[in-house]
Amino acid sequence: MRPISIETGVTKHAEGSCMIKVGDTHVLCTATIEERVPPFMRNSGQGWVTAEYGMLPRATNTRMRREAAAGKQGGRTVEIQRLIGRSLRAGVDRQALGERQITVDCDVIQADGGTRCASITGGWVALRLAVNKLLKAGDITTDPLLAPVAAVSCGIYAGQTVLDLDYPEDSEAGVDGNFVMTGAGRLIEVQMSAEGATFTHEQMARLMELADKGVSELVEAQKAAVA
User: Fold this and answer.
1) Is 115 annotated as a binding residue?
2) Reading across the β-sheet that carries 175-182, which strands appear in turn?
């Protein structure tokens, strides 16, 4: 794993916020509580957790045009924010959350590989802090967060299995994947693809072992941040 740091309380107004740094990938994560739910959830007695994701124009080595200026989100952005939302929901008892929505915003300040994984990991910290406020205020009586949720990338680079790929590794990896897991080691989602080489069952098993190791380190960092 690259060096991990999570600084909480980095914005004034959000109910939960953190800056997560995984190597040179830096993501600002904020969580906003709203006393409403989407129309399809009304009168269900259940809450909703959703996410939005974006990259600043100079998060990468060349300037990207703002998606707002283009008038629509790109397919990559939509895919990533859906992944973040469903990953975080997998660790939430939405009945215990009550009929309210928490939106987790993940803004990439600097990108060097693994931005979606850092967003999920930091997004859970922001969500945890927001839920703590609900519990402290007595708005909910049962903790709706079932387990920490974190994510890490793994791949095969130069013939070797590698944990937590940075951009140069990611861009040249023959196989790369993202592993989303709970703090108990249960899988939420695995995204694996052969980018230039196929891979064996044994290599997949090794990547799973690396993912277990990486997620356990991320969860320890999450717990320390919210302690």
Assistant:
1) yes
2) 160-163, 149-157, 175-182, 187-194
